[in-house]
Amino acid sequence: MKIAVYTPITAFQNDIGDVVRLFYGEGAAVTAEEMADAQLVHAHEESEGQWCETFVLTSMDGHREQNTLSAPIVSGGLEEKRQLKRLVKRCCYMLLKRVSGRRPAWGSLTGIRPTRLYYQQLEKGKTREEVRRTLSELFDLSQEKIDLLDEIISAQQGLIDRRARVCDLYVGIPFCTTRCAYCSFSSGEIGDGHLVEPYLKALFREIEACAGMAREMGLHVRVGYIGGGTPSSLTTSQLESLLNHIEKHFGTMEEFTVEAGRPDTLDEQKLRMIHHHPVTRISINPQTMNDETLVRIGRAHTAQQTIQAYRLARHIGFDDINMDVIAALPGENYAIFAHTLEEIRKLQPESLTVHTLAIKRSSRLHEEKYAQREQDVARMVALGRQTAHEMGMRAYYLYRQKYMAENLENVGYALPGCFCRYNIDNMEETTSVLALGAGGISKCVMREEEKILRAPNIANIEQYIERVDEMIERKHNVFSKKQID
Fold first, then answer.
1. Which residues pair with residue 261 across a beta bridge?
2. DSSP string, 79-111
3. How do residues 394-444 score in pLDDT, each as one tens digit?
4. Backbone phi and psi for residue 84, each to the nearest 5 degrees, phi listed first
5. Cα 435 from Cα 207, distance rounded (Å)
6. Residues 38, 57 contacting (CB under 8 angstroms)
7. Residue 303: in which H helix or E strand, if any?
8. How far is it, in rounded angstroms, from Cα 403 to Cα 1?
9. CA proximity to 111, closest of 26, 29, 18, 31
10. What's the distance, CA 90 to chain centroid?
11. Contacts of 284 (CB under 8 A, 6+ apart)
12. Can you say whether residue 140 is alpha, beta or left, with left for phi > 0 and alpha for psi between -120 and 50 degrees?
């Protein structure tokens, strides 16, 4: 079903479209000029200190449904826009919920960081119970999702560092042995490796320059994360050289994660080398324990290789291992996903990240027009949570994505004491981040101004190599003393 959307507030066109997609799926919201099965018209009025929003949905046969909602006008910049947008989206949501007969688990929320709303309510002086009531009554979240947010907020207590001169470090390795069918990242298959050495040379230059900049500005780099891509797709000597450069210029960090990722890229020599460095946490990601699915999605390893890599890492001495799984992979049903979780339960990692498949526009699955089956997805995600709890873990961060099956979420679970602070900082956007490498997006958190300055690195690997000095300058312009004082 396609619904043509008209609004007099053009800045909210996409936001209204997001609400339409909650009920009718990707591609449902089109502009007023396009052919559609129904028309959704928004009217906005201001009178006697009140905002008044009306939405009218008219079908092709002339049937009309309407909803109107009012609220006191809030004056004052960012908060005014935020409150008006929420009112508009809520009015639209209530109409489409009534017409469709559906209730999304996340209610009217369409953003990727639901915890931010929870924190905003707490900052207004509300108690936890009052926040829960607001999430239910105003935003229509299910009790299950409210409980999940509550669990995450509790887990994060004492772990969020809001000091202005604290920052995190992200280093991106945009290479993989193969490209997964669901992947939309700018990573390149490593191929014959001809770009790896030039890339590392440029990256080392950026590491040295940005470490010097951090020292000049008095920035303390608290935690680090090497992601990708697949960092362990580098040879042992290449990865060791990278770790040496990071340690030389940034020193030892309180937490340091290496996303080892694919089991087929790990051997004893590489794992021992990583363990020799001050790396506190690694990820070994099966995604699924079903070999047929692994072939289908383009992974170049087996379930048995995952088990072998995990056991080898344990034998070497790693005591904080994360494993990622994805619910709703092509060809998988509830029983297959349950098998994956049971195999991970046997291994007993310190953390488990349960992703929901998101079919992004630049992925192979999108190009092949893969259609998701929805009936099992919510049950899979719920089983992931149940399994994590049974393993003694708690949810400590989450994020949502567009194009995600049933508009669900990705959740990180971990044993108490093993919550990854980089993941928390990155999702909550409470700490500045120096992001190095192709595709990295540095963030300077401006607390008093309630804004975040961003310095994106170009994603194309060849362009990054050629323009690394420009990437360094972008960060210098953002992380100036004047801007972080």
1. 284
2. HHHHHHHHHHHHHHHHHHHHHH----TTTT--S
3. 999 999 876 666 778 999 999 999 999 999 999 999 999 999 999 999 999
4. -65, -40
5. 10
6. yes
7. helix 303-316
8. 16
9. 18
10. 24
11. 260, 261, 263, 266, 306, 309, 310, 313, 321, 322, 323, 349
12. left
pLDDT at 190: 63
pLDDT of residue 405: 63
> Residue 227 pairs with which residues in a beta bridge?
172
Residue of 398, 407, 400 lying closest to 378 (CA atoms): 407
Helices (H), 101-222: 114-123, 128-137, 143-156, 196-216
Percent helix, strand, coil in the chain, to 5, is 45, 25, 35
Scan for tokens 């990707």, then name that residue: 26
* 266: its two tokens: 């790990």
| Three-state secondary-structure class, residue 181 | coil
CA–CA separation, 427 and 443 (whole Å): 12
Q: Decide if pLDDT at 64 tops 80.
A: yes
Rg of the chain, C-alpha, whole Å:
24
Average pLDDT score over the chain: 91
DSSP secondary structure letter of residue 118: H
**8 A C-beta contact, residue 83 and residue 46:** no
Higher-confidence residue of 50 and 446: namely 50
Structure tokens at 457: 């690195």
- Spatial separation of the C-alpha atoms in residues 485 and 483, rounded to whole Å: 6
Contact of 453 with 484, CB cutoff 8 Å: no
Which residues, other chains included, contact 478 with Cβ-Cβ below 8 Å and sequence gap of 6+? 442, 444, 453, 454, 455
pLDDT at 83 over 70: yes
Give the pLDDT confidence of 15-63 residue by residue, as tens digits: 999 999 999 988 899 987 888 999 999 999 999 999 999 999 999 999 9
Contact between residue 411 and residue 148 where contact means Cβ atoms under 8 Å apart: yes
The rounded distance, in Å, linking the Cα atoms of 351 and 402 is 25
- Residue 340 to residue 355: CA distance in whole angstroms: 13
Domains of the chain: 1-102 (3.90.950.10), 166-443 (3.80.30.20)
Please give the structure tokens belonging to residue 331: 């060809």
Q: Stretch 357-363: mean pLDDT, rounded?
A: 59
